[in-house]
What we know:
By secondary structure, the protein is of the alpha+beta class. It has one domain (20-82). It is 16% helix and 39% strand. A 3-stranded antiparallel β-sheet has the order 1-2-3, with no helix packed on it. The longest helix has 14 residues, at 69-82.
Amino acid sequence: MLSSLQKVKLHDEPACEHRADFSFETVARAADGASDHVYAVVRWGFRVNDVASGQITNEYVNFGRTTSATFEKALDNFNTYYGNP
C-alpha cells in the first residue's frame, strides 16, 4: 500500500459524428511488479442520440473491484506492444 494517498482526476471527451453507444472501463490499479492490486473499477457509458443537439441518453455507471476479461486482454496487448514487464 502507499504510504500517502494523492487525489487523481481523469478527464475524457469522447466524440462522434453519428448516433453511437459508448462504453468504458476505467481501472485504478497498482502495477508495481510485486502486486497487481485493483483499487477500483468503474464501468460507464452512454448513447449519443443526436449529435447536432448533443442529446445523450442511457447514461450508466457501475463500480466494482474486478476487471473484465476484455480489459485484461487489452492490457496484455498494450504491455506486449510497448514491451512493458
